[in-house]
Structure formats: C-alpha cells, structure tokens
Amino acid sequence: xxxxxxxxxxxxxxxxxxxxxxxxxxxxxxxxxxxxxxxxxxxxxxxxxxxxxxxxxxxxxxxxxxxxxxxxxxxxxxxxxxxxxxxxxxxxxxxxxxxxxxxxxxxxxxxxxxxxxxxxxxxxxxxxxxxxxxxxxxxxxxxxxxxxxxxxxxxxxxxxxxxxxxxxxxxxxxxxxxxxxxxxxxxxxxxxxxxxxxxxxxxxxxxxxxxxxxxxxxxxxxxxxxxxxxxxxxxxxxxxxxxxxxxxxxxxxxxxxxxxxxxxxxxxxxxxxx
Length: 274
What we know:
This protein is α/β, with parallel strands linked by helices. Helices cover 41% and strands 15% of the residues. The chain has one domain (2-59, 66-272): TIM Barrel, CATH 3.20.20.20.
C-alpha cells in the first residue's frame, strides 16, 4: 500500500491516462467531450485504475502552450463529472498554479507536474494545497526537449535532479510523504536514455519516495518494435511489467485493464521470490 498523506492506494498501481486535449501524441481529440471523457473514465475504473490522470495541455515533443483559461475550460468539467461518479483519486496533469488550485477545488486530489513545480507559483500552490504531487524530470520544455538531449550519466543526472526537487519542495513546506518521483521517459531523452533509465530504476528512488513510470505508447517502444502508436499496447504492457519488476510503484497507462492484469502476474512473482 502506498501512503501518500491523505491518499492510500494499492501498489503497484495503474494511473489511467485521460487526455482532454486536441493534440496529445496518442489520443488527442478522442476525449475532449466531457461525456465521452466520463465514459472513458468509467472504463478505466472498471479496468482497475487506482488513479485517473486528467490533462488539458499536451506535453508531446514540439507541443506549444495553452493559456490558463483554455486549460481550465478543458479539465474542470471533466474533473467534476468524474468525481460525481467515482471515489477513485483524480490527478490533474498541469504545471500551472491556478489550474492546480481550481482542479483540487473541483475534486482532484493529486498534482502531476512535468515541470516538477518549477513554474511560476506552482510550488507555492502545492504547499497551500498539501496534496500528493508527482515531480517529473524534463530537460528543457516540450517544444524543444527532444533537440539533441545529452547527459554525462543519464541515471545519475536524473537522480540528482529529483533529489534537488524533493529538497526544494520539503524546504518550502510541502510534506515529503506527499511526493512521487517520475524519471520523465521521453521528456528530453533519447531512446537509449529511456532504456537505460528503465534498467536502473531503483537508483532513482530518492528518500524512498514512490516511483511513477510513464512509457505507455511512447516513441521508444515504437523504435524497439517498429510499431505505430496504436499498435503499441503489447510493448506498453511489457514495459509496465519491466518497470514494476525494476521497482516502480505506479505505472501510467492508456490500456488500463491489460496493464492491471499484467501487473497482477508480475506482483505475484515478486512476492513469491521475496
């Protein structure tokens, strides 16, 4: 069981991805209607999702930004609709302080920030809200992050970044027990970097905080399998299993039911060998 302050969820947990954007890399435009988004959330909950992650701004490579009001208009009706029908924790995928506040007020209970609370006012908002926060590593920003990313040692560099962000958050008054760490697969990394991070996941466990892995349908899996985005479910499920075997606590996934089933098998093997 993961104890995240006010939230307790079983581990390993699957975080279902619900993008209400027109331009996300995998499912952009599929769920930008609140009624359709609600049906997808229902499907994910029935499939065993422990968290529903709702995002209103694409962070795919090359993506531009959207303003606060546009993001709020996308996510708040969906958060309210999902919260009205399920008690499963809702995560808001945002880097904007105003969106964090409004989303939590509407029913979200976690923040998932690709900028690791480095945006204007984001850390202050998180301290005020005192809800669990996922801190992700990203080199640069979505618009430019894949322009020849380089590291001296990607595992050490990512671990050092996460350690510094945890320290900054705790110093600002955010409870350490609220923090989740995400290496940021595909965010300013080459395919080789992503594989190396996955292979060395346990080295990224800073202060014994839970690790979240998001590799579902990403380009590294396409590179490894020569499959298009919507042909990558088997590779995504395999990567989720590897992540948990390597120490991940939460896996972010598009294909929730298949991932949940696969992780039940992985967890049984882990427990049998303990």
